[in-house]
User: What shape does this take?
Amino acid sequence: MVLERMLPTFNRSLSNDQVIPADKNLFRALKAEAENHLHNLTQVKQDLQSMDPDEKTMAIELCTKIFKQTLTFVSEFESRVKTTSLLS
Assistant: This one.
């Protein structure tokens, strides 16, 4: 999953002494947001697996909202990273 592949990059950025504090703050926030989305997606998957068919129908609306938020995060990622000094 894309979010899982992002986490090691965030960790390397946070531990690199050459990354300026402002950029580390952004990467820290991005990492926390990615972990939150990953947790939500994992929880949805577990919940859907344990639900009966009637409950799944009600859960679709919540799943749609979670997926939309995750896709927004992933699609905006590049523009947010471009604000760092790493790409200057």
